[in-house]
Amino acid sequence: MIDTHAHLERDEAGEVLARARVAGVDRVIVVATSVAGAHEALAIADEHDGVYASLGIHPHEAATAGDAELAELSALLAHPKAVAVGETGLDYFRDYAPAADQARVFEGQLALAAELGKPVVIHTRAADADTHAALEAFAGTVVLHCFSSPELLEPALAHGWYVSFAGNATFPKAPELREAAARVPADRILAETDSPYLAPQPVRGSRNEPANVMHTLAVLAAARGDDPAALAAQIDANATAAFGL
After folding, report:
1. What's the CA gap between 229 and 227, in Å, rounded?
2. How much is the pLDDT for 17?
3. What is the DSSP string of 19-65?
4. Over the stretch 146-180, which tens digit does the pLDDT of each residue have?
5. CATH homologous superfamily of 2-243
6. 0.90 exceeded by the pTM?
7. Where are the domains of the chain?
8. Which residues, 6+ apart, have CB-to-CB distance to 72 below 8 Å?
9. What is the pLDDT of residue 94?
């Protein structure tokens, strides 16, 4: 099994990854949300087998990101363990960066992904229409991270985007996410923790980590009527295809 989206601290990564392996999670994609974080994500990937990095500038960081940061990000993405651009996207739920800056940095990273031939990992919150519009012109591989926007399900199905589900899909008050998971084609579904956030229901309230993706897997399998082991193998194969692992 693979956790396709986790935020890890370098000094804790060894212990966290050991617990993941015990749980049956043998690959993890560590995700950066800033240029400084990209350096740390690559260091973690270099230090641990089965760990890869997705490097991006989060929309919350957009106000202070300019051409220099995008150029540095581009250079870092040449690393052999850098498998995707992101997370990037739009977030209008929190007023941490002006919408114009978010759009500028998002478009810059979509251009990088197109230029480098890498998939793009999308963060979107309260910005579905603008996110959809921005992705319409992007011909590469799209991963909708921590899927929580049912309005984007139809575009995802139409365009063949990957849809990744996190611990919030296990919450009792999120039946719409389980319904969405049941509709995603077998070759386009992914699972993640988004750790340390969004611990799934059986461990809700605790600090999330990659081992807990197994709880989300169980709920996704139940929603789809799949055998959990078979779905784990399918998700692992999907991640290999999506991220070129």
Report:
1. 6
2. 98
3. HHHHHT--EEEEE-SSHHHHHHHHHHHHHSTTEEEEE---GGGGGG-
4. 999 999 999 999 999 999 999 999 999 999 999 99
5. Metal-dependent hydrolases (3.20.20.140)
6. yes
7. 2-243
8. 35
9. 86
